[in-house]
Write a structure and sequence with these properties.
With about 300 residues, this protein is of the alpha/beta class. Helices cover about 40% and strands about 20% of the residues. The strands form four sheets. The protein has a six-stranded parallel β-sheet, sandwiched between helices. It has a three-stranded antiparallel β-sheet with strand order 7-10-11, with helices on one face. Strand 12 and strand 13 (about 260-270) form a beta hairpin. Helix 3 (about 90-110) packs parallel to helix 4, helix 4 crosses helix 8 and helix 5 packs across helix 6. It is globular. It starts with a strand and ends in a 6-residue tail after the last helix. The relative contact order is 0.15. The structure holds nicotinamide-adenine-dinucleotide (NAD). Nicotinamide-adenine-dinucleotide (NAD) binds near residues 36, 80, 81, 98 and 226. Nicotinamide-adenine-dinucleotide binds near residues 80, 95 and 118.
Length: about 300
């Protein structure tokens, strides 16, 4: 399947890095970069296209909304990033208006598209994009806790001396301060994580803390967090081209799964050429279900605020 991937906000760190990762991984044949900063996005397109000389065959160019065709994938990374010490939810006021305007521009041109939200607060903005676009819930999803999950797997692999491919474990909930490691269903080579040689409760609580503070630490030290999410976006765009589904913890609209309704939250989901579909049987114990509901409540409140006219 050959879909073109568009990145709106590609002049910035996250969008440009996602384009670079997609080009190196060759997950699409064409990548079109859009940004209000036109000169900047032309420069990014030129620079990234030069990284394709060894991988061959991926076209990278600057463009605009009128280039969108049926079936294309639109990744949205535009808007303000966190400043040191700022939470993702504190970005809502600035980013809600930007996302609303961008989604309207996309759907005015083409409605047969897939939208992948990256801008923060990603769960809330994904819900806003769904409502503004009126697209089916399979077509609009956010990166959710996919990056937090990548961070979890990297750290578990390092601490337990096992390759990441053997690890099946997720961070779920809000992509934010109320996320949590779903430990009861976590497995390594089929063995429950908590019974794996070398595992300790202290190890997991350190990892849990490190994951939730990772973005703050990266932003404090270098300004933007962009390499990890760039790779996650490339994997998701790749999955959107395949008939066989891959599983990611992404944010999608709940319709009764785990007792949740009408809230967009990070949960394990199938992603393939048809879009996203939440898995409703991932094993969660009572404590994890409580954490999931508490996290969903945080998102729900922020989503209600995002619907207020002053914010949108
Ligand atoms: N979901 C995740 O896991 C995750 C991880 C890291 C960062 N992020 C988020 O990604 C977003 C981007 O971060 P960044 O570091 O790339 O920021 P950045 O400031 O480097 O880039 C943002 C870009 O958006 C562009 N932009 C602003 N308004 C626009 C509009 N209306 N149309 C088109 N482009 C527009 C700007 O010109 C800029 O180039 C932030 O909200 C950040 O919090 C999400």
């Amino acid at each position: 399947m050959q879909r073109t991937a568009f990145i709106v906000g590609a002049g910035g760190k996250v969008g440009a890095t996602a384009a670079y990762a997609m080009a190196l991984k060759r997950v699409v044949s064409e990548i079109v970069l859009i940004d209000v900063a036109e000169q900047l996005v032309h420069g990014q397109a030129m620079d990234i296209s030069h990284a394709t000389s060894f991988t061959n065959g991926v076209r990278v160019r600057a463009g605009d909304y009128s280039d969108i065709k049926p079936g294309d994938i639109i990744v949205i990374t535009c808007g303000a990033p966190q400043k040191p010490g700022q939470t993702r939810l504190e970005l809502l006021e600035i980013n809600a208006g930007i996302i609303r305007e961008v989604v309207q521009q996309i759907t005015r041109v083409e409605r047969d598209v897939f939208i992948v939200l990256v801008s923060n607060p990603v769960d809330v903005l994904t819900h806003l994009a769904l409502e503004v676009s009126g697209l089916p819930k399979e077509r609009v999803f956010g990166t959710g806790t996919a990056l937090d999950t990548a961070r979890l797997r990297v750290q578990l692999a390092r601490d337990l001396h096992v390759t990441q491919q053997e690890i099946e474990a997720y961070v779920l909930g809000e992509h934010g301060d109320s996320s949590f490691v779903a430990r009861s269903g976590a497995r390594i080579g089929g063995i429950p994580l908590t019974e794996f040689p070398g595992f300790s409760a202290h190890m997991l609580s350190t990892i849990d803390h490190d994951i939730r503070s990772a973005a703050y630490k990266i932003i404090e030290t270098k300004g933007n967090s962009h390499f990890g999410i760039g790779d996650v976006v490339a994997e998701l765009v790749g999955a959107l081209q395949q008939e066989q589904a891959s599983i990611f913890a992404v944010s999608a609209l709940t319709t009764g799964e785990y007792g949740l309704k009408d809230v967009v939250v990070g949960l394990p989901a199938l992603v393939n050429s048809k879009g996203v579909r939440l898995l409703d049987r991932y094993p969660l114990d009572e404590d994890e279900l409580g954490k999931l509901h508490a996290s969903a409540e945080v998102i729900k409140k922020a989503t209600q605020a995002a619907r207020k006219p002053t914010l949108v």
